[in-house]
Amino acid sequence: MSISKEKFKEMLREKGLKVTNQRILVLEVLADHRDKHLTAEDIYELVREDYPEIGLATIYRTVQLLLEMQLVDRISLDDGCARYEIGEFFDGEERHHHHHLICRTCGKILPFKDDLLEDLEDKIEDTTGFHVLDHELKFYGQCRECQKRGRKK
């Protein structure tokens, strides 16, 4: 895990949230699985390893609260499941957008960190007066491994 429990506690307090074991565990699970896009059920199974008495409803409530407090991000990858990931603020910098590259052949999801839309957001604001707060971008295609295997979809 890249962030200490104390840092998690500090972040929760800064957001005006009560520090609970459930919140800490959900944040830890998401931080430990940064490369994954976890469903609430995935989080539940991982949290249960250390906290077997936790209920799925608690996970849903915790994730929703952390989402509202902008400590986690929700992504929809068009598979009918809401998925969650730790927010980008953990790197100690201003929030940075990242996008997702989704392989249509194997389903792999790769993050893409360059935000090439900042100029577009500025132009939108200059032209229309509309201030963009957030955006999400998904690219669909085929990953390198599937291309090498010659698997087309």
Tally of discrete structural domains: 2
**Ends: how far apart?**
36 Å
Assigned CATH superfamily of the largest domain: Winged helix-like DNA-binding domain superfamily/Winged helix DNA-binding domain
Low-confidence stretches: 90-95
InterPro entries: FUR (IPR002481), Fur_C (IPR043135), WH-like_DNA-bd_sf (IPR036388), WH_DNA-bd_sf (IPR036390)
Pfam family, one: FUR
Binding site for Fe cation: 97, 118, 135
Family: Belongs to the Fur family.
What do you see in this structure?
- The protein is of the alpha+beta class and 153 residues long.
- The chain folds into two domains: 1-92, Winged helix-like DNA-binding domain superfamily/Winged helix DNA-binding domain (Arc Repressor Mutant, subunit A); 97-153, 2-Layer Sandwich (Dna Ligase, domain 1).
- The protein has six helices and five strands.
- It has helices at residues 5-14, 21-32, 40-48, 56-68, 118-128, 144-149; strands spanning 72-76, 82-86, 99-103, 109-112, 138-141.
- The strands form two sheets. The protein has a three-stranded mixed sheet with strand order 4-3-5, with no helix packed on it.
- Strand 1 (72-76) and strand 2 form a beta hairpin.
- Helix 2 packs across helix 3 and helix 3 (40-48) crosses helix 4 (56-68).
- It is flat, with a radius of gyration of 18 Å.
